[in-house]
Amino acid sequence: MSASQQLTPTNPNSALKIRLAYRFLLTLNTLNAKKPPNFDHTQIHRRSHRVKIAAYASMASVVGPKRAWSRAILWKIRNRGMLARNKKRIHRISTPIRLHRHHARRRRNPNRVVHVDPFVNSGLEVKLRKLVPGAETIDPCGLLDETADYIKYLATQVEVMRNLVDLYSTI
Amino acid sequence: MAGENEIEGRNRDGEQMHYSSTNLSSDWPFNGSNDLTNTSMALVTSSNPMNNTSCSSASMIDSFCHTPPTIWDHNPTNSQHLGAFCDVNLQNNATTSSSALGFRKGNHIAPSSWSPPNSAVKRGGVFLPPAAATSTMLPHTLSQFPADSGFIERAARLSSFSAGNFEDMMNPFGNVPESSLSPYSNRPVQGQPQDGFVNGFKSTSGEGSKDTPPPVDYETNDGSQPKHDARQGGSGFSGNNLPGEAEYSEGGQDETSNEGFGSKKRRRSDQDTDYNQFKRSPQTPNEATRNNSEIQQKGDRNPNSIANKSSGKHGKQVSQSSDGQKEEYIHVRARRGQATNSHSLAERVRREKISERMKFLQELVPGCSKVTGKAVMLDEIINYVQSLQRQVEFLSMKLATVNPRMDFNIEGLIAKDMLESRVGPSGTLGFGADMAMAYAHNPSQMASIMQGGISGLGSSSDAVRRTINSHLMAVGGVYKDPSSQASSAWDDELHNIVQMGLNPSGTPINTQNLGSTPPSHLKAEP
Q: How many CB atoms are located within 10 Å of the residue B272 CB?
């Protein structure tokens, strides 16, 4: 009946959802294909962690390098092995600048901890900076921009995942 | 001739480089010309300034004899020395300019190696008297040349500014046209134009920091050699420089707002600046003023920035004093009753930006429309982001547990998603499949196939999964690539699906078989 029904997104949000969903499912498939899922408790934790990383990675890759937060996420994911190693070796000394080896090309090291003077609300803004990835070294104006973008994508990603879970659970 | 010219040019470059080295320290390597000879000459000449000067002057003199008549014809017959220099410069230009910066403006182009001083071009200070010098005058000038290294230096500098105002320069050796001088005649003669000159020289290097040494050099040179006509001409030129400088500083005032850009632009290729400078070379001082205004209109062009910078140092006070209006690069107008300080303006702009973004965030974050105030808003935003992240974690855990059985195709899931999100759960999977097909950009192809599949499978609750599987597989296959082989694969798959779908017991096998293909398909996809 709806053979000729055109699939046009009624609002840009659904188009975004489609893209996010597609990307996420792609990564999920590769994840599932790699290891057959089993129901061990520990395995589930590990899997859930991987799924979470996959979710963030897909979200960031849909955005691409346009946004600071997406760049930070992708960088973190790409270098999480190295970061973990650094963590263990250095025991997280409270140095203002964490060691990293891949900063040649980056103008801003996402791991760099910069003591930013919050403009009006001390503490709140710093909290926000910690929440939003890659927002430690941005000026307050850009910080709000990044936060808005991040919230938008995060919300759609959550929705996609919820739909997926519903889909999977019903079948 | 060409070879001689080239050599001449090289020598000239060396001389110029030498001059520059004495005055502008390390600017020559940064000169706009890409000429390797220039740079090499600079390195060579830095060590033996005097020797080079004399040699180069001699070579210049020699070259003069060989200068092509065309060059001479164009030269104005004003000052002999300058004319000679100009000719040399022209020759130099002939040889080097074409290669280096391509600003072959004919005769009035300053040597490429001296191109940097855009500001000099603007200033009336330039004075290549190319037009003036005639072949007859040449010998005179030539004889005078080697006498004075200082004069040569100055003449070289002057000729470098040759760009356009040489006519103006010609007049004076003393007679500075009052018109150009008018508003700034009271300004100290020596300091500013030299500043401008020097800045002009250095403009290519991009830094105005070296202003002080060169002006001092210039002044000493002027003072030390009062005897020569050329020197007089030089002083006259310096006087000329003043008015030119004044003009440009005036222009600079208007462009203080562009200084920010200017500092950036100055670092652009010297070639650009040289080119611009030479473009304007053959203009009279009046034209220079016009050009100045034109330059100003251009906004953030290199010469403007350079002129700004060159005149910026000494002209800053003037510019600031005349810069009554508040100029921000954002061009915000002060509202009535509000402070017009540039700082407060910037603050206001910033605040407005932030409030605008907060409003946008308010719309994004649910339940924040009533909240007012930044602090509360920020609090809400933080809470929302935290909750979203927690949800992601929770859902990922759920997906990890639920996922295993699903080798579903993306398309089907997407279709289902869309179905659920838009049409509602009442929509059958057929709709979803249709949608997916449409989304796969192969509506015509897949519609028929899918419809057949759908009808074959039915939509009972038991068969839902099978249907989904089949749809997804088929859709996935379709989505893969609308190539011929893909379509054949679809047909095969579809057949399989239909048969398996009708066979309830074969579901697990179905999933497995079909599950194997989609990942491969998916991987095939970019």
A: 17
Residue type at A6 in one-letter notation: Q
State whether A37 and B400 contact (CB < 8 Å).
Answer: yes
Tokens read off for B180? 């150009």
Contacts of A104 (CB under 8 A, 6+ apart): none
CB count within 10 Å of CB B193 equals: 36
Between the alpha carbon of residue B163 and those of residues B107, B118, B357, the distances in Å are 10, 9, 50
Q: What are phi and psi of B114, to 5 degrees?
A: -100, 10
Query: Is residue A21 within 8 angstroms of chain B, CB to CB?
Result: yes
CB B101 within 8 A of CB B116: no
| DSSP structure string for B328-356 | -TT-PPPPTTS---HHHHHHHHHHHHHHH
Q: Are B392 and A73 in contact (CB under 8 A)?
A: no
| A151/B395 Cβ within 8 A | no
Of B295, B240, B1, nearest to B125 (Cα)? B240
Residue A19 touches partner B, C-beta closer than 8 Å: no
CA distance linking residue B121 with residue B294, whole number of Å:
14
B336 CB-contact burial (10 Å; exposed 0-12 / middle 13-18 / buried 19+): exposed
Per-residue pLDDT of B345-395, as tens digits, reads: 888 988 888 888 888 888 888 887 777 777 888 888 889 999 999 999 998
pTM, entire model? 0.39
Mean pLDDT of chain A: 75
CA distances (Å), origin A157, targets A10, A160, B184, B519: 18, 5, 66, 22
Q: How far apart are CA B356 and CA B338, in angstroms?
A: 20
The answer to whether residue B522 scores a pLDDT higher than 60 is no
Nearest residue of chain A to residue B452 (CA atoms): A3
Cβ separation A151–B385 shorter than 8 A: yes
Residue B266 · residue B103 · CB < 8 Å: no
Among the partner residues A5, A49, A171, nearest to B468 by beta-carbon distance: A171
d(CA B462, CA B458): 10
CA distances from B359 to A110, A118, B57, B348 (A): 27, 19, 71, 16
Which residues, numbered 102 to 161 in chain A, qualify as contacts with chain B under a Cβ-Cβ cut-off of 8 Å?
A: 119-121, 124-125, 127-128, 131-132, 140-141, 144-145, 147-148, 150-152, 154-155, 157-161
Quick: pLDDT tens for B58-69: 454 455 445 444
Q: Which of B358, B401, B455 to mutate to test the interface with A (most CBs of A within 10 A)?
A: B401
The pair phi, psi for residue B76, each rounded to 5°, is -75, 150
Return the residue in A10, A41, A51, A162 with the most chain B beta carbons within 10 A, the one to mutate for interface testing. A51
SS3 readout for B23-87: HHCCCHHHCCCCCHHHHHHHHHHHHCHHHHHHHHHHHHHHHHHCCCHHHHHHCECCCHHHHHHHH
Cβ distance B218 to B198 under 8 Å? yes
Q: Does A25 touch chain B (CB under 8 A)?
A: yes
In angstroms, the separation between the Cα of residue A100 and the nearest Cα of chain B is 26
Q: How far apart are CA B398 and CA A131, in angstroms?
A: 23
Judged by CB atoms closer than 8 Å, whether chains meet at B393 and A48 is answered as yes
B255 pLDDT exceeds 50? no
ipTM of the complex: 0.79
Q: Name the residue among A124, A132, A141 with its Cβ closest to that of B375.
A: A124
Q: List, in order, residues 6 or more apart from B291 with CB less than 8 Å away.
A: B122, B164, B280, B283
Question: Among positive and negative, which fits the CA dihedral A47, A48, A52, A58?
Answer: positive
